[in-house]
Amino acid sequence: MRLVIKLCCFLGFWLVAATAVLAEPVVVVLETDKGSIELEIDKDRAPLSAGSFLAHLDAELYNGAGFYRTVYPENDNGNPKISVIQGGVLPGTEGLPPVSHETTGQTGILHKDGVISLARGEVGTGGGAAFFICIGDQPSLDMGGGRAVSGDGQGFAAFGRVIRGMDVVRTIHQSRPSGNTEDAYLAGQILDPPIKILRAYRK
Question: Residue ranges of the domains in the chain?
Fold first, then answer.
């Protein structure tokens, strides 16, 4: 009986400890010139995407980076229409290599309001150098949702969410784009100057 009790206690402790490890959040702060955004990064469900973002963060590549693109239905040149802001390293700064694509089917992290995700072109070209934050639910960005530059149906790799500062996200989103671009797909979406990320760090 004592052995059973001890075993049950051990298993209970192990399960609690394992749950605590899995539940441990990584909170990141992006201090922008419009205010601060706090993100909860999900390393457990999206290890590659989250790892790439955190690698850029720890290398201080987001210090002096910025949000340079705002997309809303009226200026969106793709379909279905979406609402996002895109940011990351700016021209003149080299990002780290891309990572393998993690679909929303693999991670279970859907593109809901405030979710952060990796921008990409072809599958496997996404990395922490470029990311976006959703304003409102954006199911077309999920696997099979129909929105991808290459039309591959794989969606985008979500890896976290905003836990504080959505008012700042919306303020950036409402900034009027005035920058020029030679890419017709991005026409009317570029912020010039970008909204600067002054400092980025783990909380």
Answer: 25-202
Nearest to 194 by CA among 92, 60, 99: 92
Q: pLDDT-derived band of residue 21, with 50, 70 and 90 as boundaries?
A: low
- Output the CA torsion 94→62→129→44 (10° steps): 140
| Domain at 25-202: CATH code | 2.40.100.10
How buried is residue 69: exposed, middle or buried, by Cβ count under 10 Å (0-12/13-18/19+)? buried
Q: Does pTM surpass 0.70? A: yes
Q: Is the pLDDT of residue 62 over 90?
A: yes
